[in-house]
Amino acid sequence: MGRSIYCVVTAAGSGTRLGNPGPKALVELAGECLLHHALRTLEPLEGLAGVVITAPRDYLETFTQVAQDASLSYPWKVVAGGSTRQNSVYLGLQGLLSFDRGARQVCANDPEAIVLIHDAARALTPLEQFQRVCRAVASGCPAVVPATELVDTVREVAGESFTRQEVAITPAGATPDRSRLRCVQTPQGFAGNVIFAAHQQGREETNTTGGALDDAMLVAHLGYPQYFVAGSRRAMKITYPLDLHLATWMAQNSNRE
User: Fold this and answer.
1) Which of 37, 98, 101, 30 is nearest to 67 (CA)?
2) How far apart are the first and last CA of the chain?
3) pTM for this structure?
4) Cβ 96 vs Cβ 50: under 8 Å
5) Per residue in 150-195, pLDDT tens?
6) 118 phi and psi, to 5 degrees?
7) Torsion angle of C-alpha atoms 186, 192, 196, 201, degrees rounded to 10
8) Residues facing residue 25 across a β-bridge
């Protein structure tokens, strides 16, 4: 591919919904924490010039130890995340700029750089998904999102919820065409200059600061088109205990989806 690849791994979120009082990234999955799995997956990615891990401020030493124990061959660093995911990614992007670049590497905010934003909670994302995203960015797509098709019918809600005989009820609205909807995943990939500009503007504008659900939304706010590539069921976001049980099964059956 020949392009310098940088990655921000967001790992500053809490594990409350998993029943864990600490950071979600430290929850154990098949003998190793989620962060360990996420970092090891990146190991074979060709052209990887640097990875920044965003961590809760009180856990910087713990996250550093996890990365050290993973014996990673690529450059990495741990930085403190912010109060929101958007702020954490911004801080992670700033951390990418301080990597010592070799003669063949460009800076992370260069148009020729590929910048990936990945969620450590998607710990089992296969290497092939990273590669698909990188190839699409290298082909000229400024913003690339891996996505999967919906398997359930989706309904909009109409009006406000109310109660009837102590049962909460919400009226149903429209039924969107499922064929036009996708579930988005990570890593999301971007041309370096595009994602840096998007986060800088998102930080400056009060109507977007802290509010973007993912990074591609900030890029779209700048007017850049987004492109989808195939996602993977293995890239599920581990949020609830049932997710963790399923991910454990997948980790123990790595050749199956």
Assistant:
1) 37
2) 27
3) 0.93
4) yes
5) 999 999 998 888 888 889 988 888 999 999 999 999 999 999 999 9
6) -130, 145
7) -90
8) none
Report the SS3 class of residue 179.
helix
Using CB atoms within 10 Å of the CB of residue 77, give its burial: 0 to 12 exposed, 13 to 18 middle, 19+ buried.
Answer: middle
Report CA Rg, the chain: 19
5-149+182-252 is a CATH 3.40.50.11540 domain: no
204 burial (CB, 10 Å; 0-12 / 13-18 / 19+) is: exposed
- Does an H or E element contain 78, and which? strand 76-80
Residue type at 191 in one-letter notation: A
Kindly state the average pLDDT of the residues 17-41: 93
Token pair of 163 as six digits: 């109660």
Report the SS3 class of residue 144. strand
State how far Cα 61 lies from the chain centre: 22
Q: In whole angstroms, give the CA distance from residue 90 to residue 195.
A: 10
| Burial (CB count within 10 angstroms: exposed 0-12, middle 13-18, buried 19+), residue 200 | middle
CA atoms of 121 and 89, how far apart (whole Å): 15
The residue among 88, 77, 28, 34 whose CA lies nearest residue 53 is 77
Contact present, 28 and 36 (Cβ < 8 Å): no
Phi-psi region of 74 (alpha: psi -120 to 50; beta: other; left: phi over 0): beta
